Amino acid sequence: MPGSGSAMKKQLRWLRDELPKLVEEGVLAPEQAVRLHAHYGLDALPAARARQAVVPVLGAVLAGLGVLLLLAHNWDGLARAMRVALALAPLLMGQLACLYALTLGGGTKAWREGAAAFTAIAFTAALALVGQIFHLSGDLDRFLLTCGLVALPLVYLLRASFTAALCALAFGGWVLAAPEQPPLLVTGVFLLLAPHVVLRVRAEPEAMTTRLLLSALLPLALFAVGATLMRATATDAGLLWFAHCVALLWMAPTRSAPALPVPLPQYGLIGLLVLGGAATFGDFWQESGRFIDWAQSVQVGLLQAVLLLALLFATTLAVRARQWWRLVALPPVFMLWATLAFAAVPPAAAAATLLANGYALAIGVTLLVSGLNRRLQRRAHGGLMLVSLLVLLRFLDSEWSFTARGVAFLLLGVAFLLANLWLRRRVPA
Amino acid sequence: MSRRWIIAVLLGLFAVQWMIPLTLIQGHQSVLDEGTAYRFRTTPVDPVDPFRGRYVTLGFAASRVTVAEPDAYERNTRMYAPLRVDEDGFAYLLPPLGEPPAEGDYLVVRVMANVGERALRVALPFDRFYLEESRAPRAEALLRRREGDAGPQVWAEVRVLGDRAVIADLVVDGRPLRQWLRAHPAGD
């Protein structure tokens, strides 16, 4: 970082705070902002602005949730008109705060985010209280969808990423409460947030609110669409969707400018471990009704085709960049396609189980050997953990007695500890 | 978009935010004020809604409807069940119809399942009664303990007007539940 002292830090903080505005106003290209960021080491500065933005938002959300909880208590000693007035008062306060945020000098990010989040929660509280007063039936799905859709314009009018994350939560809850929704409708609803996400990632890739938004939105959207696919057709259409998504996340480019604000490959890795672990069980491949009748649902075919094209594109990028490790996500996807495209017969299922186990073992051993050869403790540990996980899963899968499994687990634990000790002595961290 | 436009759109959104709860309030209040009152026999249990608080779920005897051919009804279909009152003064439903009946009150129901050779289970448009946080579990405990005994008679007073039906009160032995709870402290 050039220069030193509090004056320099102050100027650098000013520059860091100005960059997003300059990008937003078109004075700087996002790539230029990223280069300036890197040149002046702005990431190393204390996140004062982030705190300034987060604290009021947190305050607004807590206050809003407090109102919601107070109303949920149900003060049935109060007259109905009084309870209605109490329910609607926070909404009015939130709306006034929104107007203030846009007009009377309150246009800071903290005001915009805080006012929008509070208004969204206040509307939820108002609607909930009306349901409470009139003893309205369940319909949690419609309630959450209404709250999410009504909050959506606030996201765009006040550029409020935190409220966008709340919308994503509401949409996720909507699907969870009623997973029988058409997959394309769910995709469309989540896509309503896409323009805001793109704008924020381009303008403020490093902002905490942008990270929070992506961290909430991506998993929620993927799981919501997957859940509707599972419900709408055979379970395996959802499984294929998850496999595609996990592979895409793992293959997401990490060196592009501006850098993605959330660790997508890490998300992909977690998904790969879960999906890969499940695929090593025989039942995973032997479920009845694996065969997907593609003609049954145009929506399923359309969604899977889009993902397949995206996967092909990601593969091309990985090959061009010579990032071969990114391709490890592809074989499980192809295996799933192979077993789902044709009705699975028992020998094919057995072969698939064997292949999945062999593939996971090969990756684990490769990581372990490569880590040892290159003296990379993290990689070696990763390989060791993968192999251990595979062995553990097979113990769970087997029909051994509890005593035999207990002894095996004990031996495996000791072997893991010894291997770890050996690694620590020979390989630097 | 200029600031003036943003504020104009924002004001439009605020109007929608007020319109949704106020329309709900107006619609349901008119049912309470002008609707016909019916008594539905019920059994309460106590769950929690994450947003709206504690309530007692109501299981209604009227949700079991006697029909000639249960298989003729498709599950999850929205139908219209004419309302009648038995000799004890409690409401029951006639077999659901595809269209609202020309005369008399009715409930909009959803066909759930066949429950026997000549019976159908339907979901009624009301199934819960919200109570203050501490009262719902106590109400459920007090009422459930008396199941199987002669115990108190529990019914929901429901107001019906057109397509809408709103629970006005939960009544135990002729007294509103809140009054009845005050007369039956915990453990009584």
What does this structure look like?
Chain A has helices at 5-24, 30-39, 48-72, 80-102, 109-133, 140-157, 161-177, 183-191, 194-203, 208-232, 235-250, 264-279, 282-286, 298-320, 330-341, 346-373, 377-397, 402-426. Chain A is an all-alpha fold and 429 residues long. Chain B has 188 residues and is an alpha+beta fold. Helices cover 27% and strands 37% of the residues of chain B. Chain B is built from three helices and twelve strands; from the N terminus they run H-E-E-E-E-E-E-E-E-E-H-E-E-E-H. Chain B has helices at residues 3-34, 135-145, 177-183, and strands at 36-45, 48-49, 53-60, 64-66, 78-85, 91-93, 106-114, 119-123, 128-130, 154-161, 164-172, 175-176. In chain B, the strands form two sheets. In chain B, strands 1, 2, 3, 9, 10, 11 and 12 form a seven-stranded antiparallel β-sheet that branches. Chain B is globular, with a radius of gyration of 20 Å. In chain B, 31% of the residues are buried. Classes of the chains: A mainly alpha (429), B alpha+beta (188). The A-B interface holds A 68, 71-77, 84, 87-88, 91, 95, 98-99, 102-103, 119, 123-138, 140, 143, 146, 150, 153-154, 157 and B 3, 6-7, 9-10, 13-14, 16-18, 20-21, 24-25, 28-29, 32, 49, 51-55, 125-133, 135, 166-167, 178.
Q: Can you summarize this structure?
A:
Chain A is mostly helical and 429 residues long. Chain A contains 18 helices and no strands.
Keywords:
heterodimer; A: 429 residues; mainly alpha; 18 helices; globular; B: 188 residues; alpha+beta; 7-stranded antiparallel beta sheet; 5-stranded antiparallel beta sheet; 12 strands
